[in-house]
Amino acid sequence: KQEVTQIPAALSVPEGENLVLNCSFTDSAIYNLQWFRQDPGKGLTSLLLIQSSQREQTSGRLNASLDKSSGRSTLYIAASQPGDSATYLCAVPSNTGKLIFGQGTTLQVKP
Amino acid sequence: ETGVTQTPRHLVMGMTNKKSLKCEQHLGHNAMYWYKQSAKKPLELMFVYNFKEQTENNSVPSRFSPECPNSSHLFLHLHTLQPEDSALYLCASSQERGARIGYTFGSGTRLTVV
Question: Do B102 and A32 touch (CB under 8 A)?
Answer without folding.
Answer: yes
